[in-house]
Amino acid sequence: MRRREIDTPLDKGRRKRLVDVLKEKGITSQQVLNAINHIPRHFYIDTVFDAKAYDDIALQIEANQTISQPYTVAFQTQLLDVKSGTKILEVGTGSAYQASVLAYLGAEVYTIERQKKLFEQNKLFKHLSYYSNIKYFYGDGFEGLPNYAPFDRIIITAAAPYIPHSLLQQLTPSGIMVIPVDEGDAQRMLKIIKNSDGTYEEEKYDMFSFVPMLSGKQ
Ligand code: SAH
């Protein structure tokens, strides 16, 4: 993979326009918009997609996976309600762009990826300051990270066939999970809130399109 790791005034301008697009589409969290405005998305993709780095679209990364659409990243992050010090488990590191958005917001990020190639690549790429807030794991996200649980927040960035029970168990009381669950051709974005008495509440949002959440490692 070839990365362009210089952030030019042109890139900054393109990011500002992307932020305007996200606002028009309904993203209201100023914190989330700031993160998108700050983080050079073109660092996370191959240079062949350079011209499209700030279009509001998903793009191909290694191992036949994708970096999520910026609107999707913003929407999921907004639902997560991240504060400084929030401990988050992300399933599906991919390009590590979503993990970077969370880390930029001050979260303590634990991110897990089942594709070895992506995991290795992300471990090497850590020159941005907020990278120190991210811990990378190679494994199957269906199992979560029981040794590091509980988490205040859990975010799934692949299409889940169902809500994994093991992940619900790794949420703190009052914790939030944001997960796209399959409904045929697309996925319904769900926000699950764990009450302090151990019961759950579910809020339903729009449909999105993710690559599948698969079990096992590659
Ligand atoms: N958050 C990523 C989006 C990547 S696409 C980003 O910002 O770029 C979804 C990722 O989930 C893919 O890299 C895929 O390999 C990974 N994935 C799918 N099933 C998984 C599982 N069970 N455990 C961990 N990662 C998984």
Characterization of this structure:
This protein starts with 8 loop residues before the first helix and ends in a 10-residue tail after the last strand. It contains six helices and nine strands; from the N terminus they run ααββαβαβαββαβββ. It has a single domain, classed as 3-Layer(aba) Sandwich (Rossmann fold). With 218 residues, it is of the alpha/beta class. The site of S-adenosyl-L-homocysteine has 24 residues, from strand 2, helix 4 and strand 4.
Give the helix/strand layout:
Blueprint: H1 9-24, H2 30-38, E1 59-60, E2 66-67, H3 70-80, E3 87-91, H4 97-104, E4 108-113, H5 116-124, E5 134-138, E6 151-156, H6 165-169, E7 171-183, E8 186-194, E9 200-208
Parallel strand pairs: 3-4, 3-6, 4-5, 6-7
Antiparallel strand pairs: 1-2, 7-8, 8-9
Helix pairs in contact: 1-2
Gyration radius from CA atoms, angstroms: 16 Å
Mean pLDDT: 96
Structural class computed from helices and strand pairing: alpha/beta
Sheet with most strands: strand arrangement: 5-4-3-6-7-8-9
Measured by DSSP, the beta-strand proportion falls in 25-35%
Oligomer: single chain
Query: Largest sheet, if any?
Result: 7 strands, mixed
Number of strands: 9
CATH superfamily: Vaccinia Virus protein VP39
**What does the overall shape look like?**
globular
The domain tally reads 1
What is the CATH topology classification name?
A: Rossmann fold
